[in-house]
Write a structure and sequence with these properties.
homodimer, Arc Repressor Mutant, subunit A, Four Helix Bundle (Hemerythrin (Met), subunit A), 3-stranded antiparallel β-sheet, 3 strands, DNA-binding
DNA sequence: AAAATATTTTTTGTCGACAAGAAAAATACA
DNA sequence: TGTATTTTTCTTGTCGACAAAAAATATTTT
């Protein structure tokens, strides 16, 4: 799950029509993983060399990333990795919480047995990541776990927005959650368990309650990190 | 507001960096206006001639439209205008109603005076469109009116989704609402008035109530058209 | 030496061309 | 005559090149 994408200089020929897709996927992964710093400029020519393909498919990949808000294109100037929007964190938390609730509720009513199986598999993966203390995997699998629940709800309008929010959350968590802390993962694990149970039981009220609780938990976590960060900066700057 | 975009064969030179933008805007407008039929293929070469520019900027515009779901790209095959998704109308209505409520509520708390002025201007435009019995303008201005309210709420995650939903709704209304009917526009006008008042008064509860009511009104309208349409088809086919 | 102007370098937006796939047409085969 | 196979045509994905902006550098002017 944590593939090393060091050098993409592929001497072997790539299949036609795979170009933009691979560039898009890899860049997206690196942006969400903070492998590329928010705000850092993206050099088209360098990507040209790295992926050994012309600028045309690379530009198309960047256009795609831009319309998802993952990069920002300054006309006639460089495109940069989207900076993390601290101004509107409150709006982010608000939307995230609502989408957590709505998607989990819908999942409880629309889920199939096959979907429950898949969700439980992801839950297991998360458990493994926790026991391995693999922060990177935890963040990524956590996102996939909730995205899978949302998909079981079947409403693509909600899932699209929710996935966008989860991705943004992934960057925020990645930013702060570099050192492992064992209290929270266990709490999340328990909440995940409750959530799956509610969805499996088709208990909408319970699903809603736990989704809200879980969302608030994550919001609190991020806010705590930010506060801590502020304090640190305050010490240094003032 | 209802410009005629007949021939884009611009002999005069276009400013650099304006290419993709114009193509994107014009195509988007035509797709939402049903000038281009849902499902109909998009010929890159024809667009090349029409806009008198090379395929590169046109493709970038199509990529942008694709990532907004307005066109669908079949790999190595043609890209087509996104078909209207009748399968998931229920999900569409659900999301639309929720976004109506959430954005109007937020507008009631976050709106500034300047925004109220702009909203009232759009309300006036809608009124004009109704008295002129200009269906096309009514549908378009109605969308802009609600989008403006949503923007006053300031949460970009909600506004982005809501605008996408309003656009999809625009296509649905355009599809059925070809002949003018004077009952509904007046009803909408009254509801709009109530909505603006609630937002201006910062009355969240009222805003929520009216938003929900208005959404359900629109949902009912579309559903009525679809039912009517089914009956018509039934007569012919069976 | 600092500010303003001119020049060079770099980077982006667009172009025309070509090759890989898919669709359509033509041919062969039963 | 209908089906399978080959050939041709058409469309898409990618490429390398070039020109317009912007940025960086050098030059002139005060």
């Amino acid at each position: 799950m944590a593939e090393i994408i060091a050098t993409e200089a592929t001497p072997a020929k790539r299949r036609r029509g795979q170009g933009v897709g691979t560039v898009y996927e890899i860049l997206k992964h690196e942006i969400l993983d903070l492998t590329i710093q928010p705000g850092s400029p993206i050099d088209e020519v360098k990507l040209t060399e790295r992926f050994s393909m012309s600028r045309t498919p690379i530009r198309e990949a960047l256009v795609k990333l831009a319309s998802e808000g993952l990069v920002v294109t300054l006309p006639n100037r460089s495109t940069v990795v989207a900076p993390i929007d601290f101004q509107n964190l409150a709006h982010f938390f608000d939307a995230l919480t609502l989408m957590y609730r709505v998607t989990t509720r819908l999942a409880a009513t629309n889920r199939t047995e096959a979907e429950i199986v898949r969700i439980r598999q992801l839950q297991k993966s998360y458990e493994d990541a926790v026991s391995e203390k693999n922060v990177s995997a935890m963040i990524e699998v956590n996102r996939d776990f909730h995205a899978e629940i949302a998909r079981a709800g079947k409403n693509r309008y909600y899932t699209d927005l929710f996935e966008r929010l989860l991705d943004e959350g992934r960057r925020l968590l990645r930013l702060y959650y570099s050192s492992f802390n064992d209290e929270l993962p266990q709490l999340y694990l328990d909440e995940h368990e409750e959530m799956v149970q509610a969805v499996a039981d088709r208990d909408v009220a319970a699903a809603d309650r736990i989704a809200q609780q879980h969302a608030q938990q994550i919001v609190r976590q991020i806010q705590a990190y930010i506060t801590e960060d502020r304090r640190l900066n305050a010490d240094i700057q003032l």
